[in-house]
Design brief:
Length: 570
């Protein structure tokens, strides 16, 4: 290992040389209280910035072990320090020449607290992984600016962000306790017979359609549970809190337009993740395996048995082993449900606005006009109870235009000016006094799920093929793209970046023509649990990239959307 003085000499020796001379800086350098690793140097000022790490021994960093001993606590500490590092680094950033010159950045965190590769905290050390735009004028190195960054700015950031004595201990303690309370509450839901919990006082609306920050101002309405659903829970740190507990079963969220139906569902959808203090949804907590379902016109589907929802297609087209490169709204929604059940989802979240109308309901008038034998779709209204009884899978459904669902609902929650009311009894009364006249269109019980085996030939890559993410909605796998814009519980570009490499990792290690998709996903998650997200990176022992951990449902969703996927039903 080299010294900081040797790094200084190297920098001085490349002044005014062409940009490629920066390669000489790669290596490890010991500073007074940390080690700097320059793992990768960019090829030119406009290329992705250089990758670096700093490691502080824990005996110097001084973070108490009690703060990171549990997994939720460790993730919370790493998230907190990532945000601290990013905030401090912003104060040092400045344009220092061409392209990305002068940039110092670490993975950007959103409202959700996710396990990331950007920060590592353990008993041995604290390590931050970040990027630096090495400075140049044109393609000529400016050694003075490079020295400022590597010899002054980075040590300054380390001092302010990676030592316990430098951060706010109360804020860090609060962050850890919040994460432990959120996780404890999520673990309580099953034993309480609940699928979701929304705390009194929660702020659900966001400031805009493109932002996940909470709405602020005098018009914000804090959530208040209806008395019929109010439950009390005792949390390890916060103690007793109250809120609306949504029981397992079939729950309708109804109400007029713009009264908060979809906003409530959106909060529940994001409740599979922990949130930062001040988000407003800190205690909107959902079963960790809840899956948002929607129609997805145009998606590819491979070998899914959708016959429980769609059968007797014209020209005898097979729906027991259904494949298409261009699914309709109804076939895509049916496939999305079956694929979620294949991985084990205990809760489905649906919004009428993003569902295929003919998949959700067929009213009495349409039943009389178009005979059942001419209609291949068995609507969701006639399968929701099957899902609960046969698969123990509950449903939360936003409905604004179909009162027929009153007949199958276990509970009906009315949103009015962003405030919920229990209207179950009234809905049942209306249903009894005004029969819909529709006939249940179920030819039989929904059968078991046919698991599928992904075949290796679907994942073969040439040596030059790229595997990478493009933002949050797109993965390039060789010459094919995986489109994820409608996988709505992906919340961070780092998750998509991880998904790209997880698919490659799974293909190399577990997709063998024998393991089912569920087995493949579980095996990958076990490896990630044991070894961490670093294992999916090609840069072993170096900066692994800016990855965030996705759930098993998003891993399966990405594989399912690979165009050209070949499967065999097990």
């Amino acid at each position: 290992m080299q010294s900081a003085i040797e790094l200084q000499k190297k920098i001085a020796g490349i002044d005014r040389k062409t940009y490629g001379a920066y390669k000489i800086l790669m290596g490890d350098y010991q500073f007074n209280n940390f080690t700097l690793f320059i793992d990768h140097v960019q090829s030119d000022p406009f290329a992705p910035p250089s990758r670096m790490r700093v490691r502080v021994p824990q005996q110097l960093a001084g973070f108490p072990g009690r703060l990171y001993q549990t997994r939720p606590a460790r993730v919370a500490v790493e998230d907190f320090l990532t945000r601290c590092f990013g905030a401090v680094a912003c104060g040092y950033c400045g344009k220092k020449g061409t392209g990305k010159s002068g940039l110092i950045t670490i993975d950007r965190c959103g409202q959700e607290i996710l396990e990331r590769t950007a920060m590592v905290v353990n008993d041995e050390f604290v390590e931050a992984r970040f990027s630096v735009g090495l400075p140049a004028r044109g393609r000529t190195i400016t050694a003075g600016a490079a020295g400022d960054i590597l010899l002054e700015y980075i040590p300054g950031i380390v001092r302010q962000a990676l030592f316990y004595k430098s951060v706010d201990p109360n804020k860090l303690k609060t962050r850890v306790e919040l994460a432990e309370d959120q996780t404890a509450l999520r673990n309580m839901l099953h034993t309480m017979g609940l699928v979701a919990f929304v705390a009194d006082g929660s702020v659900l609306p966001r400031e805009s359609g493109g932002s996940e920050l909470p709405l602020q101002g005098p018009g914000v309405v804090g959530f208040k549970s209806p008395p019929e659903y109010r439950v009390k829970v005792n949390l390890p740190h916060r103690g007793e809190i109250t809120g609306m507990g949504i029981p397992r079963g079939i729950t309708l969220i109804v109400g007029g337009g713009y009264h908060g139906k979809s906003t409530l569902l959106r909060a529940i959808e994001r409740g599979v993740y922990n949130h930062v203090p001040g988000d407003g949804r800190e205690f909107v907590i959902t079963l960790p395996d809840a899956v948002k379902i929607r129609a997805e016109d145009g998606r590819s589907v491979a070998g899914v048995d959708i016959s429980g929802f769609i059968n007797n297609l014209p020209f005898g087209r097979d729906t027991v082993n259904f494949s298409t490169s261009n699914a309709s709204g109804s076939t895509s929604q049916a496939a999305n449900i079956i694929e979620a059940l294949e991985i084990g989802a205990p809760l489905l979240l649906l919004d009428e606005d993003t569902s295929a109308t003919n998949f959700m309901i067929r009213d009495a008038r349409m039943q009389r006009l178009v005979a059942k034998e001419k209609e291949p779709i068995t609507p969701f209204i006639d399968r929701a109870r099957d899902l609960l009884d046969n698969f123990n899978t509950s449903t939360i459904l936003v409905v604004g235009g179909s009162g027929d669902y009153f007949e199958v609902a276990d509970q009906v929650i009315l949103m009015e000016n962003y405030s919920p009311r229990d209207v179950t009894a009234r809905a049942k009364q209306i249903s009894a006094s005004n029969p819909s006249g529709r006939v249940k269109e179920v030819p039989g019980r929904l059968g078991g799920i046919r698991e599928r085996i992904p075949l290796p030939e679907s994942f073969r890559l040439e040596s030059r093929d790229k595997v990478k993410a493009r933002g949050m909605d797109d993965i390039q796998l060789g010459r094919r793209n995986i489109e994820l814009q409608f996988v709505e519980q992906l919340v961070d570009p780092g998750q998509t970046a991880a998904l790209a490499l997880i698919i490659k990792y799974a293909a190399q290690k577990y997709i063998n023509g024998k393991a089912t998709l569920n087995q493949v996903v579980q095996a990958v998650l076990q490896d990630l649990e044991k070894e961490g997200l670093d294992i999916i990176s090609a840069y072993k022992g170096r900066h692994p990239g800016d990855y965030a951990l996705p759930r098993k449902y998003e891993i399966a969703a990405a594989i399912n959307r690979l165009r050209g996927l070949k499967v065999q039903q097990a």
